[in-house]
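Contributing new complexes? Match this layout with cobalamin.
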Amino acid sequence: MNDELKSILYNEGVDIIRFVDISEFPINQTRGFSKAILFCIGLSKKFIKDIYNSLPTDSDEFLEKEEKMEKLADWISEYLQKKGYNAYAQSEKNNIEHRYTERGYIDPKMQSGISPLPHKTIANISGIGFMGKNNLFITEEFGCALSMCTVLTDAPISVEKHPLTASKCGDCNVCVEKCPAKAIHGNAWTYQGGRESIIDISKCFCVLKCMVNCPWSLKYANQEL
Ligand code: B12
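Output block (do not edit by hand):
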């Protein structure tokens, strides 16, 4: 089944796919599922450079790719259900729908569109990268210039779990300097510290500067085609 899902997702333009063991998380986050399908799509090099250079862009590629990943998650979930398995797409649409019907599953402190089990948490135990000081998940291949989504399931897929990869941000504080909202504190992400220790998310106005100024994203964007 892993190969079948890989083939569907790669055909849809997904760049990274992982099958992740999420059994360590509490039931209020996993909805009782022990497996997750994580998939990510990289943003184009042009889009990253345009935002980096503050040039006008034809469209919001991040939003478009985010929507594409979310629709794909809904589709994969339906596909698995039609095959007789249980599945739950962690798309914003689905999470919001379930917030009202299964209120008890969602942390009451969480606000609109929030995932019970954040994609970045799943990505972080998938072995493909690490959490950056910018509160984004950073991969070797695309830096943090990617959009991702996840599907929770009981389908017969083989899953993996990796130890958390330590931050490779080192002394780099570019995201702190470039954030126009001054939202990022400059601390390395830790399991214990959580989001509040690295960012004041209430200040964020989604300009993507933390993403495109990250040296890991620029390394990808500046690679020769
Ligand atoms: C809501 C949301 C926002 C809100 C946040 C406000 C709020 N009220 O929470 C706003 C609109 C401000 C926002 C802004 C941005 N967002 Co946003 N956002 C989300 C969303 C939908 C939910 C996030 C959530 O659940 N937060 C709850 C907190 C608790 O979790 P978290 O901060 O996401 O992640 C924490 C955990 O993962 C934990 N963690 C990490 N590893 C591990 C491992 C273990 C074992 C454990 C226990 C925990 C753990 O640490 C993280 C710490 O902060 C996710 C998609 C999703 N469903 O996950 C996208 C998402 C996180 N956003 C994303 C992006 C790109 C952005 C923006 C750059 C721009 C944008 N959307 O236009 C900015 C960046 C801000 C920043 N630097 O953090 C991407 C991140 C991609 C990446 N490379 O990491 C995501 C994954 C969307 C996607 N489809 O790809 N976002």
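Reviewers usually confirm one structural detail per submission. For this one: The radius of gyration is 17 Å.
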